[in-house]
Design brief:
This protein has 332 residues and is of the alpha+beta class. 37% of the residues lie in helices and 27% in strands. An eight-stranded antiparallel β-barrel has the order 1-2-4-5-6-7-8-9. A hairpin with a 2-residue loop joins strand 7 and strand 8. Helix 8 runs antiparallel to helix 9. The longest helix has 20 residues.
Length: 332
């Protein structure tokens, strides 16, 4: 393996040297700049493969990671337009700066089919050189499904899509509520309870909570009912209302058909329930005890993973489908 690594690095240096032979600026000059800031997108030539009529066919895969001043997030995302274009392959990445190039180690779970949760681990060791301030070239070696992979890499760096919010105040550790409104907004909301508008809103909410809770069908509203009780409990500093919210949420999880092993509940219906429970969790967090919070944290984490992956009975994997928007919004 050490011999192969040495040969690979020599091959890489020779390749880049030939490629950059006519460039005025040296590769070292480019590397010394903090170029890795923004969205780094890498195209791995023939980075994934599968069988077609008992013969292997190879396809390119694109890898995206977010970096700032050469410090990159640990999450990496892959997309193969001719392999399984409806699925975003996810994984982890580490990046280090060498003498005259960048070393990127990436592990991705490659899903061959959008209708199953099964995946296969792909590992890539990537070496790239900045060709300019926004262009990269290099090579990679890797493995997927027992097959060795080797190929060229082309990359680009573009500005991050993240927009800074004016006067943004970072969220403190374990700050709740924070999904619909911040903890700092709570005193102002409490002051509005006795206004004409505030009374009308609360009366409407209390009337809604007297309605039926549906545990089957298309409108699973148990999570939303729990969130309603949690909102009232938060505004009125009433722990008994928070406990009512807890009981309603637990019934919704237990009684909603298919929420655990039963596959009759499609992800389309489950998404609405999970969103309601997540909002209830956020609003009731200050009023529930440690055991309650830990219990629901574990449940939400499991549901989030399944919703983010998609799949299941009736799953519509098209990007603009209502299945996609509800499942991924609930996961978010």
């Amino acid at each position: 393996m050490a011999l192969f690594t040495r040969r690979f690095s020599i091959f890489f240096v020779l390749y880049v040297t030939l490629f950059l032979g006519g460039s005025k600026a040296s590769s070292t000059d480019f590397v010394q700049k903090e170029l890795f800031s923004g969205v780094v997108s890498l195209r791995l030539r023939n980075g994934v493969w599968r069988l077609l009529d008992d013969s292997p066919i190879f396809q390119d895969i694109f890898l995206d990671l977010n970096c700032e001043n050469s410090v990159c997030e640990s999450d990496i995302y892959g997309w193969a337009p001719k392999y399984n274009q409806d699925v975003e392959h996810k994984g982890t990445v580490s990046i280090s700066k060498k003498n005259n190039y960048w070393q990127i180690e990436a592990d991705l779970e490659i899903r061959a089919n959008p209708f199953t949760m099964e995946s296969n681990l792909a590992r890539y060791s990537i070496e790239v050189l900045p060709l300019s301030e926004d262009e990269l070239i290099g090579n990679y070696r890797g493995s997927l499904n027992g097959r060795f992979l080797l190929g060229k890499v082309k990359g680009s760096i573009r500005e991050s899509n993240i927009q800074k919010v004016t006067d943004f105040v970072p969220i403190e550790s374990q700050e709740h509520p924070r999904l619909i409104f911040r903890n700092s907004d709570l005193d102002d909301l409490k002051a509005k309870i006795d206004t004409v508008t505030g009374k009308a809103i609360l009366n409407r909410l209390e009337d809604t909570l007297k309605g039926e809770i549906f545990y089957t069908g298309y409108g699973l509203n148990g999570g939303s009912h729990g969130a309603g009780y949690c909102f009232l409990g938060l505004l009125k500093d009433d722990v008994s209302l928070a406990q009512k919210g807890w009981d309603v949420v637990q019934d919704a999880i237990a009684l909603s058909r298919g929420i655990n092993e039963n596959e009759n509940l499609r992800i389309l219906e489950r998404s609405g329930l999970v969103m309601g429970v997540a909002i209830a969790y956020d609003l009731c967090y200050p009023l529930w005890n440690d055991e309650q919070r830990a219990n629901l944290t574990k449940w939400l984490a499991g549901q989030t993973l399944q919703l983010a992956q998609g799949g299941g009975r009736g799953w519509n994997n098209h990007t603009v489908s209502n299945w996609n928007v509800r499942a991924r919004s609930a996961a978010g």
